[in-house]
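Before the break, one more example. Copy the sequence into your notebook; we will annotate it together after we see the structure.
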Amino acid sequence: MRIVTWNINSLNVRKDHVAAYLDRVAPDVLCLQELKMTEGKVPRSLFESRGYQLAILGQKTYNGVLIASKADITDVERGYAPADRGQARLIAGTVDGVRIVNAYCPQGQDVDSEKFEYKLDFFDELLEWIAPQIELGEPFILTGDINIARQPDDVWSVAEMTDQVSYHPEEHARFDALLEVGLVDAVKPHLPPHTFTFWDYRQASFQRGRGMRIDHFLVTPAVNTRVVRAWVDVDERRKDKPSDHAPVVLELA
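Here is what the structure looks like once it is written out:
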């Protein structure tokens, strides 16, 4: 079972990238974030013509998440109040017995801003929502653009990033809380040090290697024991008009 998470940063702008990726990689499940469109605007034929079912939570201009799966998606949940504050940030569904929560977590803007406080609240409320599911011990995956880099080699420069958004102690505490209730970072053991998933468009960040690993697969032990390999598909970031994120791939036996 091959599962991919990818912040596409506008499905409308990068629908051709997605189509080519589905043809090349053929994931069993694709989780997209930042669709930046309503459900009615999603190009369903792009997915359905390739044999995918869809579960979508859209929003005009901002946010938006979807799960595309070759197998049936059951028990779909769209959003979770109060965490998402009415924003299209969370969608969940079950595929082949695995519960998948696809999240576009708030970025936080600046540590002194209300948006950073919202980010912290979001994680507290997300944990409240998923903890009872994790405690069941069943196959469970939290994936998506989590917007937190947890380890020193998950950022291009610890000196530059310490106490900044995405690498702040308050965010690390929220990330650790997810691990403490039973989730495991399934991708990290399979990556070389300083493997990133996001590079800002500004300041030639990709070309200069100034990235962060903020897109994750956090899984229960029931899933982690099935992990065969994982990688970041950095080639997608090299394309013309790319997303600022690269896809992250998790393969399960």
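The CA atoms of residues 74 and 162 lie 41 Å apart. The chain has a mean pLDDT of 98. Try to locate both features in your own notes.
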